[in-house]
UniProtKB/TrEMBL annotation:
This is Methyltransferase domain-containing protein. It holds the Pfam family Methyltransf_25. It comes from Jiangella alba. Residues 41-137 form the Methyltransferase domain. CDD domains: AdoMet_MTases. Gene3D superfamilies: Vaccinia Virus protein VP39. The lineage of its organism: Bacteria, Bacillati, Actinomycetota, Actinomycetes, Jiangellales.
Length: 238
């Protein structure tokens, strides 16, 4: 999804991200709770900081949050600035993976790439994992989210009420995540039965399975499934 798309989507983004991150919280805790205050965790594609806040709540490590989209990064920066604990530990970096990974620290105790890999093509994912393989500490973990390969079109509908308005989103993705119809989302704002406004967003999202990630890792890293849609990356045993 392009930065221009996020300029319009950002209004709706946070309304539907709390639940996915709460599902990830136990995995975040398992991967990073042991880290001390001098450790560093990189968050690749931090968005508006919903995940940043979750990560910070489960580890004492410092966090470097990389986000390319200006409007998303503005919300991220505001969220960090408004929380004294986050402001002390979170550094926001403007950039995208894999082109701007060099802006991040040269050694990492962990990394998070959640709800992001589907925006990256195979070559970019390989470059991201190669970078992680060079910088991840020997006892460090990466946390990634994956999807199941679809056997047919799947529609997901979510809704949330704010005051008099109901915010509703419908996600429709093509089978297999590639070819045919482009994935799209329809966002609506409703006041009772009246449609206040609506937006349709085409997406570059592609389904990335755990098997895809395992095949794209360098020889120095291995993948360990850690639940439905989440996996840990660690160094291979020599």
């Amino acid at each position: 999804m392009t930065e221009t798309s996020y300029e319009r989507l950002a209004e709706f983004h946070d309304l539907f991200m709390a639940e996915p991150w709460e599902r990830l919280r136990p995995s975040v805790r398992a991967a990073f709770a042991h880290l001390g205050r001098d450790a560093v965790v990189a968050e690749i594609g931090a968005g508006t900081g919903v995940g940043t806040r979750t990560i910070a709540g489960e580890t004492r490590a410092r966090i470097v949050a990389l986000e390319p989209a200006l409007v998303m990064r503005a919300v991220l920066t505001a969220r960090v600035a408004d929380d004294a604990l986050l402001a002390e530990r979170v550094t926001v970096v403007a950039g995208a993976a894999p082109d701007d990974l060099g802006l991040l620290p040269g050694r990492l105790d962990g990394f998070v790439c959640a709800h992001v890999l589907g925006h990256l093509g195979r070559a970019d994912r390989r470059a991201l994992f190669a970078w992680a393989g060079e910088r991840l500490a020997g006892d460090g973990f990466g946390l990634v989210t994956t999807q199941r390969a679809r056997t047919g079109p799947a529609e997901v509908v979510q809704a949330r009420r704010l005051g008099d308005h109901e915010y509703r989103v419908r996600h429709l993705a093509p089978a297999g995540g590639a070819g045919g119809q482009q994935p799209a989302s329809l966002y609506e704002v409703r006041d009772g039965d009246r449609l206040v406004r609506s937006y349709r967003f085409a997406s570059d999202w592609r389904v990335v399975t755990a098997q895809d990630v395992a095949a794209e890792l360098p020889a120095t890293l291995v993948l360990e499934p850690a639940g439905d849609g989440v996996a840990l990356v660690r160094r291979a045993v020599a």
